Amino acid sequence: MIWYALLVAAVAAERVVELVVARRNERWSTARGAIVTGQGHYPAMVVLHTALLVGCLAEVWLADRPFVPALAWPMLPMLAGAQALRWWCIGTLGPRWNTRVIVVPGLPLLTNGPYRLLRHPNYVAVVAEGVALPLVHTAWGTAAVFTVLNAVLLTVRIRCENRALAAATAPATPAPA
């Protein structure tokens, strides 16, 4: 349980780093006339992602979930892959990346990095993490509840993001290398 708690704490620390990056990027975007949308669903997203971290630990502790190596070992590389994909997205978008829906009018969509393969690769990372992190220590309930609620939230989020991008971006072009 201690190793799992440290893993969840590491993911939580990574989230704090993301928020620092997002705040910096928000200032960059705002200075360029950014349009912020989707404020209504953002608090639900914060609560859901916080609940994932708390739920992982609470379920393992309260329900006395066992560590099952046959499940945990495949989940660890899936979790690491989710983190790598997330940071690839952050690196590719640079100052455009944010936890909020913030779009600078006139900037083209990026079509390099993971965005040459998927329209919303960061959400693939979120889905993978929402499954892998709880299942490292057999927190089945947390994985199931997060997955269902996240699917509902991502439906709202992706629609919001697509509308914002369509309204504010220039035609797609690769970013400079």
Task: Quickly describe the structure.
By secondary structure, the chain is mainly alpha-helical. Helix content is 68%, strand content 7%.
Structural class: mainly alpha
Tell me the strand order in the biggest sheet.
Answer: 1-2
Number of strands: 4
Which percent range describes the beta-strand content? 5-15%
CATH class: Mainly Alpha
Predict the CATH topology: Four Helix Bundle (Hemerythrin (Met), subunit A)
Could you give the order of the helices and strands?
Answer: HEHHEEHHE
Low-confidence stretches: none
Helix content: 55-70%
Largest sheet: 2 strands, antiparallel
How widely separated are the two ends?
43 Å
Count of folded domains: 1
Instruction: Determine the mean pLDDT.
Output: 95
Rg on CA atoms, Å: 17 Å
CATH architecture: Up-down Bundle
Number of helices: 5
Could you walk me through the main structural features you see in this protein, from its secondary elements to its overall organization?
With 177 residues, the protein is mainly alpha-helical. The protein has one domain (2-168): Four Helix Bundle (Hemerythrin (Met), subunit A) (Up-down Bundle), CATH 1.20.120. 68% of the residues lie in helices and 7% in strands. A two-stranded antiparallel ribbon has the order 1-2. The protein is elongated. The protein starts with a helix and ends with a strand.
